[in-house]
Amino acid sequence: MATGRISSVWHRPVAMTGSRRRKPAGFYIRRVIQYAVMIILSVIFMIPLAWLVSTSLKEQGQVFAYPPIWIPNPIRWSNYAEALQRAPLLRWLANTATITVFAIVGNVLTSSMVAFGFARLRFPGRGPLFILLLSTMMLPEVVTLIPRFILFKSLGWLDTFLPMIVPPFFGGGAYNIFLVRQFYLTIPTDFDEAARIDGASNWVIWRRILVPLSTPVLTAIAIFSFVYHWNDFLHPLLYLFTEDKKTLALGLRAFINPYDASWQISMAAAMFLVVPIMIIFFLGQRYFIRGVVMTGIQGR
Questions:
Q1: Helix, strand, coil content of the chain in percent (nearest 5)
Q2: Rounded distance, CA 232 to CA 164, Å?
Q3: What is the pLDDT of residue 1?
C-alpha cells in the first residue's frame, strides 16, 4: 500500500508537466497567423532594398523592364567601378565617416553626463529644468536653422565640418538625455551610496559604475546617432560648399541628371550609403533592442 502511494506521488509531477506542455489548438493557429503576417510585412518592406541591390547590378535596359527583372543577367559589377569614376565617392565616404564618428562620441558622452545629473544628483529646479529640456523636442528644427547659420558664419565655421561635429558635444540632444536618464533610474542607488562611503566623487560614480552598466542604452544612442548623421542631408547642404568636403548623402545628388538616365549607376552609388548602416545595425541590434526596451518600461 505504501509502495502504491509512493508510486502515485512519484509520477504526479510527470503527469502535471505533460499537461502543462499541451497547448490548445488555438494557440498554434494564432502563432501561425502571427508569423505569416510578420513574414508578409517583412517581404513588403524589403522590396525597396531588393530593388536597389538588383538595379545596381543591372544593365541599363533592364532597369524598368516589365515584368520586373529581379535577378540581373548578366550581373554587372562594373556599375560600381563606373560610379567610383564618375564622382569621388570614397572621399565623400571618408568625410561622412569623420563627421559621424565625432558626432557619435559627442552625443554618447554628453548625453550620458547630463542624464547622470538629472537621474542621480539633487539640486534646486531639477524637475522644471528637465521638463524644459523635454519641451525642446517640440521645437521644429527648421526654426533654428537661420540663427545657427548666422552663428556659424560669424565663427568662420562655414565650409568646415565643425557645424556638424561641435553641437553634439553640448548636451547630446533632449531625446538621448531622456533615454539615458530613464535607464539610470533602473539602476539601484545602493551602488552610489556604497561608492560615496568609500570616498568616490560624482565623476567616479558616473565613469566607473553607471557607464559600465549602461552599455545597452548607450549602444542604442550610438546607433540612433549613427543613422541620423550618416543620412543627414540638410546640414551638409547648408554648411558645405566645396566639392571635396561634401558628404555621401549630399554628393549622391550629383547623380540625378535629367539628361542621363543611368539609374543603375545611381543605385550602385547609393549602395555605398546603405551598406554601412545595415552592417552597424546587424552588429548592434541586440544591444539596440535591449536598450530601447529597458528605457521604455521604466515609467518614473
A1: 75, 0, 25
A2: 10
A3: 42
